[in-house]
Structures are given as structure tokens and as C-alpha cells.
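Reproducibility note. Readers wishing to regenerate the assembly model reported in the main text can use the exact inputs given here. Chain order matters: entities are listed in the order in which they were concatenated for prediction.
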Amino acid sequence: MPKSRRIEVITSKENESIKRLKKLHEKKYREELKAFLIEGVKVVNEALDNVSETINLVVFSQEAIQKYGEFFDKCINLLNSGKLRRLVQVPEKIFEHISTTTTPQGVLAECSFFDKGLDVLNHHNRVVVIDCVQDPGNLGTIIRCADAFGFECIVTLDGTVDVYNPKVVRSAMGSIFHIDIVRETKKEELLETLREKRFALYVTTPHGNVDISTLSVDNRFAIVIGSESRGIDAAFLENATKKVKISMPGKAESLNAAVAAAIVLYELRKK
Amino acid sequence: MPKSRRIEVITSKENESIKRLKKLHEKKYREELKAFLIEGVKVVNEALDNVSETINLVVFSQEAIQKYGEFFDKCINLLNSGKLRRLVQVPEKIFEHISTTTTPQGVLAECSFFDKGLDVLNHHNRVVVIDCVQDPGNLGTIIRCADAFGFECIVTLDGTVDVYNPKVVRSAMGSIFHIDIVRETKKEELLETLREKRFALYVTTPHGNVDISTLSVDNRFAIVIGSESRGIDAAFLENATKKVKISMPGKAESLNAAVAAAIVLYELRKK
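Running the prediction on these inputs yields the following C-alpha cells for the assembly.
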């Protein structure tokens, strides 16, 4: 069976690759090693289809090899064709040790960082800026929405949860592989770049004077999504081209941050 | 100080009121006692303003009395005027014991159930039906959205997480007190009622043939919100007046359930 010749079998927690995977649960090691974990068949599959060159290795638990046989075969083929560097098989116990979830599917991969610098804004006309969103589930949901509504670039600011946090990656459901990401940017630098490149700047605030449903959209714009509790940073409010609001005819005073972002991105989708 | 005369101080976990509050963490006791817990200053305040007659008692921790002095005074006034039945003060330890959160604010209340029967549909023209949403955070978020966009009635079907679950109540942020709720309804019974009362029935499905943004809305309608994983029940698909979809020009194949619901309710808001 030459097909499976290069699959590595690892059975010890003390193995260097396993120790490295475990380290990637923590942000400080992710920054040091410039790599992060993705988990679950759907997400790993999306990564293989979109950013395979950044994948350092794919790990299967023994049970997952049986359960996701077709996907395992795909990985073997990529390994044989040289498009996947390493394919690793581990016992369930080791998988549970490296897993980022409490109910692991048994498939996980290590990716190198693939975020871009601010100069990537040269190639985009519609940018989503995320400021101070701290809940990983919310950030993942917003990235997934941005992707669904045809945005191709996301900029996160300093103070926003790490894009490479396993919970963000999980709730983004593969969307981080479809979109250019600029990460942990300084506010001043971003504002400077947006000015230089002549982006209109939209902010969403309950005190906005333009109903998002009636906004006439500029050719080139950045939309700022803030957190529910902290609202929009003063620097963005001062520099805003338009301050938009979501009209709420009912009694609730506000919306969940991810929901408000979703509605704004929906209204700004490519029509 | 006659003002504070009737405030009860409870210092033992063995006190019957404390035991009862602890029991209300579990659905089986909520159903038996027809009561549930609400927690946090904002939510308890919303309840006092909207459904004070259903509140059986309000509990403050000693620290919370200091911290939320103004709100405590409001409760004392309601107690003195007979609009609040009981006001209880407990040490922090006891509060932590009865709290439904890991970071308690120190304010909690017991409410009697206030859900309605299906005949409440006589009074409404715009109804949100929730089928099989199992995540409490998602259900709470959907209720908050429905309230924000001017819906006044929600029907949850058997198989949906309990509206009175503390996590649902928390993420709904007071919106359950603004809206008529019909709870744990049988699908057949609901469909029969909707037919009788001549409601149009809208369902959202990726296979819908009407873009939600172009839907011309009937005077009287029910919109069915399903779960992300299970989709819309066949009985609703068969009986649907219109099958709507959210257009997604980007690469993500689907949206988070709460986000999809939010966009649909936004599009169907009273304009």
C-alpha cells in the first residue's frame, strides 16, 4: 500500500508535534509560531480548498479515519501530490488532548498565519472594520456574515479578539479562508490609510442620522462595526462620512452586536 | 425607619424561599411551580415596569443594595405601595447559591409564568413562530430582534428550548416582557389556528423562490424561524403561502440561525 506510506502515526503526548499543537491553544504561542489551529471536517476541508499552502499538517483520530473515510482519502491524495506537507494519525486520547472543543470530530489542522498588511486595501472597494468586538462567537459570526454578503476584506483593530482564536475560527465556519484579513491594526494607521485611498467611512450608531435602508452607497467604503457595550470609538465618529442607524419600530432599545452587524452588512451587500 | 420595615433578611440556604429559588434553575420545577427566575438590574427593572403583577419576590445581595441604591429604593417604594409582594435581602454567599450566572450582579427575581394560549392570536396580525431552536442564546437573541422590529407575538413549538430558561431570559434582555408569548405549542394545533384565523404562512429556506427583500407582505402573517441544523419542518413547507430566501452574493453557504432570523424579521418590520 504505497498510498499510505507517508502517514505519520504519533502515540505520545511528549512528541514535539503534539506539544506544538497544544501550545497553539494559547495566543502567545500562536504569535510566536505564527500558526493556529482549525478543527472539524468542514473547516479543514475549506482550508484545503482555499489556502492549502498555509496548512502545515492535518491530524486525524483513529475513529475519524473510519468515520470520514472519503475526506481522509482526499488528504492522502493531497499528501501524495505534495500539496499537503504532513498527515498525522493519533489515538483518541491524544486527539482529545490537542482538541480545542469539548466534543471533537477527530479532524484538526495547523495553519500558518495568512493575514495581510493594510496595503491589501488597494485591491478592495468594500471593507469591514471591526472595533473592540471581544466575544469570539460574535466575531466569527460577523466574519461569516461579511463573507455571505460579498465583502472580501476585514480589518480588525487592536482590542478586538484574535481572529485566530479557535472559537472565532469555529464560528466563522470556514469564512476566514474566503476573505482577506488585516489583523490587530492601529486605529490611527487605518484612518490614515482610508483617507489616502479615498474610502468613505460609515459608522453605525443609535444616534445616526441616515437610516441604513435608505443609504446610497459610495463606490469605495469602509463600514465600522463596534461592540454592543462600548459603541463606536470617537475617532471613527469624528471621521465618519455617514452615521447610519438601524430603524427599530418596536420596544427593544438595542440589538445584539452580531445581529446589528449582520443587518448592516446585509443592507450594504452587493446588489 | 418604617420604609424598610417589611424587607426580609434571609441568611440560610435551608430557608424555604431560597430552596424554592434554587429549584427554579430546573425546568421540571419551573413547570411544577409555574414560575421562573430573572436576573440582573436591567431585566428585573423591565419586569417591574411591564409585568409587575407576575413578580413574586425580588432578591438583593447586601453589596447590590449599596451598588444599585436607586433601584433598591424603587423596589422599596413598590413594596410600600403594595405593587411588589416581597423584597428579600441575602448575604453574597446565599446570592451566589441562587444565582443563574457565574458573575452575578446581585439582583434577581421570581416571576410567575405569563405565557398565553393560542387564542391570543386573535389580537395579532404579525406572529413569529419558532421551531426547534435549541440554543438558548439564539432564542433570546431572536426574541430581542422580534421585539426591536415591532412584532408583538411569538409562538414557540414543542422541541424549542424553554422560553423561561435563564439563558434565554438573559439574552432576550427584557424583551420577553414586551411581547405576547405562546409556548411549547403543538405544530398541528398551530397550523389549524393559523388556517382558521387566515394568517399567511411564510417560511425561510435556502430553496425559497421569493427574495425576502422583494416580498410584498400580507396584512396578517406568521413567519416561521427554524434551526440552522434541522431546517424547516415539512408540515410548514407544505402549508407555506410563500417560501422566502435571503440572497447571499458571497461565498459563505449559510448564516448563523439567529442572524438569518434577524435579517428576516428586519425585512418584515413595520415600515
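We highlight two features of this model. The longest helix of chain B spans residues 136-148. The CA atoms of residues 208 and 243 of chain B lie 5 Å apart.
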